[in-house]
Amino acid sequence: MVRWTRAAGLLLGGLVLVGCAEGPEPAPLQVEIYRAGQQAIAKRTQARDTGTQPAPTRAFLDSLDVPVQEMIVERSNVVAYVIKHFETRDNLPGQVQVWRTNDDFSVAMRNGVLISTRGFWGDLLSSSVQVSGSEPGPSHEGEHIQMILARDNREVPFAFGCELTDLGQETIEIVERRHTTQHIRQSCEGRKGSITNEYWVDKRRGVVMQSRQWAGPNIGYLRFRRLTD
Description:
Strand order of the largest sheet: 5-4-3-2-1-12-11-10-9-8-7-6
Helix content: 10-25%
Number of helices: 4
Order of helices and strands: HHHHEEEEEEEEEEEE
Distance between the termini: 28 Å
């Protein structure tokens, strides 16, 4: 997890990589992002010494032209920013989006539901999720199987039976912006224990704005907040 310390301060890094892929010369906006990112890095470096962790401002986030999520590794309270790398469809319902950091930690989601991680110790290799073609978040109850990478490189299945509870409408605030969401709780039981995933879904926009999702016994829970479109 040492590399995550660097990733936590590098919101800039991935953004510049995405921008520069289109040509040798950065556009003016990308230059502004670079300068703002350098200032953010300096503040975060100072913050590690003072024990504080300043968050990006809405003004800075609104200047970005790429989708960004905040990701928190709950067990270690490490913060990182993941940028949408690509999206695709396969033969299963829903749309798959892959998000990654500048130093190649990545997560994949299907309609906002976590299906895999890469770069962690004890990765979530794959996950069967109950989603529909277009509705964000889990759409119905049923079996939920996660394949976890063990120490000896074996794939270990964790099987659960899951139920959904609609906790009603809830307004959440994400970096100076309020969102009206539907709070969905997914409660899962299996032979190896129980887990609870939570989703705050903006159904009008078709986006999971915030979530807390279990990524296996090694990683634990990951928390996500959608910072930009």
